[in-house]
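--- STAGE predict ---
source: upstream dedup step, 1 unique chain passed
mode: sequence only
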Amino acid sequence: MSLKHVYLLFCVVGAALPLSQFVPWLMVNGADLPLFFEHLLVNQISRFFVFDVVVSALVLLIFIVVEGKRLAIKNHWLAALATLCVGVSLGLPLFLYLRQLTLDKQQQAS
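--- STAGE serialize ---
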């Protein structure tokens, strides 16, 4: 299995696991943002994870923009969108997949 296939596998897992928790919550509670943040920030442990993920997402977004431009990665904006819509668990493996596709093409061309 190639590295790009491993990244694709993690895209599936990285989307499925978080959404398996969020979609049922959304079906029960709707788009109730105050309740969402109340549940999200309920205690110090949940805030620990929220802060960790937010910082990671910000770093990832910067990496996507900088590395995407540097390597001229096609559609790198999709990884930024995936990060904002689902999270780092999808955005990072998607960007690494797109990056690996670009690196593979560059290697084949040389």
